């Protein structure tokens, strides 16, 4: 990844969930390179500590917090630990995901609940506990990782698509309720090559990339750049909305 180091979030404190891997890792690294101290949050301790170590090795500030963002007490604790380590909280990137697919007739109710807890309820909880802390030092920005699945669906993504579509409504209402000092936006990634794609063959990846006007799959850095923009002062007049970052994938009708 290119290091720009232009200090776009200098002096800020950011909390990134799902930061052990993929898009969250990319965002944590970019926010740190742009001057933020970062709380790297994940359930994967080993990989989370790796992201943290990379930031520290590059001269940035980071701590690892093990938290299951689908659990209320752990969301509350990740906010408290970030604020106590760095003295403030300015940016929350709600990004972690867990999901199971299946038609409604086949999907286990507990898998529906877990997908909605990790993918949607967590954003409510992080606002509930995070907004008062952000306001102690003047407010900040929340960026949620939604998906092109917020707007269009794939078969059998019953719980995932419900969670991702729900994020758009939640993003809007949080922006209304907590502006002007807290801005809330979503990014909607298209097909981004992360460990989430590990089961997909090279041929299928190529086929998928060919469907995208940009003729490639996205990278975590593509999404991290959009998150950085929405979290930074450059986006100070942007709230309650969403930014599709998909190489043109859903510009096509069929
Ligand atoms: P990833 O699998 O690389 O990373 C997800 C991270 O979330 C992992 O580190 C995992 O350990 C962590 N995680 C899972 N459950 C957790 C929990 N309960 N608490 C805390 N951490 C937990 O996936 P990714 O592709 O980087 O996805 C990141 C986000 O981007 C997700 O919200 C996903 O829905 C969204 N997204 C991804 C794509 C894509 O093509 N990769 C497309 C659209 C949207």
Please give a handful of descriptors for the protein shown:
seven-stranded parallel sheet; Rossmann fold; binds nicotinamide-adenine-dinucleotide; 254 residues; alpha/beta; globular
Task: Outline the structure in words.
The chain is α/β, with parallel strands linked by helices. It has a single domain, classed as 3-Layer(aba) Sandwich (Rossmann fold). The protein is built from 7 helices and 7 strands. Helix 4 (109-135) links the parallel strand 4 and strand 5. Helix 1 (22-33) crosses helix 7 (220-231) and helix 3 (72-86) runs parallel beside helix 4 (109-135). The radius of gyration is 17 Å and the shape is globular. Residues 17-18, 20-24, 42-44, 68-70, 95-98, 118, 145, 147, 189, 191-192, 194-196 line the site of nicotinamide-adenine-dinucleotide.
Give the rounded overall mean pLDDT.
Answer: 96
CATH architecture: 3-Layer(aba) Sandwich
Structural class call reads: alpha/beta
What series of H and E elements makes up the topology?
Answer: EHEHEHEHEHEHHE
What is the CATH domain class?
Answer: Alpha Beta
Percent of residues in beta strands: 5-15%
**How many domain regions?**
1
Helix fraction by DSSP (H/I, runs of at least 4): 40-55%
Please tally the helical runs, counting DSSP H or I stretches of 4 or more residues. Answer: 7
CATH superfamily: NAD(P)-binding Rossmann-like Domain
Compute the separation of the termini in Å.
Answer: 33 Å
Q: What characterizes the major β-sheet?
A: 7 strands, parallel
């Amino acid at each position: 990844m290119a290091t720009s180091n232009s200090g776009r979030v200098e002096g800020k404190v950011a909390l990134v969930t799902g930061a052990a891997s993929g898009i969250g890792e990319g965002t944590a690294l970019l926010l740190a390179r742009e001057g933020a101290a970062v709380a790297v949050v994940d359930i994967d301790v080993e990989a989370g500590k790796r992201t943290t170590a990379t930031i520290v090795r590059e001269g940035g500030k980071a701590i690892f917090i093990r938290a299951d963002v689908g659990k209320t007490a752990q969301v509350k604790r990740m906010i408290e630990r970030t604020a106590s380590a760095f003295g403030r909280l300015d940016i929350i990137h709600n990004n972690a995901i867990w999901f199971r697919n299946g038609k409604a007739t086949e999907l286990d109710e507990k898998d529906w609940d877990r997908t909605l807890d990790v993918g949607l309820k967590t954003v409510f909880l992080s606002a509930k506990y995070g907004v008062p802390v952000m306001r102690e030092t003047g407010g900040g920005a929340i960026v949620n990782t939604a998906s092109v699945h917020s707007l269009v669906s794939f078969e059998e993504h019953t719980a995932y698509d419900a969670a991702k579509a729900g994020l758009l409504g939640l993003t809007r209402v949080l922006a209304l309720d907590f502006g002007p000092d807290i801005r809330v936006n979503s990014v909607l990634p298209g097909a981004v090559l992360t460990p989430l794609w590990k089961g997909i063959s090279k041929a299928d990846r190529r086929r998928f990339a060919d469907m995208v006007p940009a003729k490639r799959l996205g990278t975590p850095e593509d999404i991290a750049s959009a998150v950085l923009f929405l979290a930074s002062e450059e986006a100070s007049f942007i709230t309650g909305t969403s930014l599709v970052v998909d190489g043109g994938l859903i510009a096509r009708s069929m």
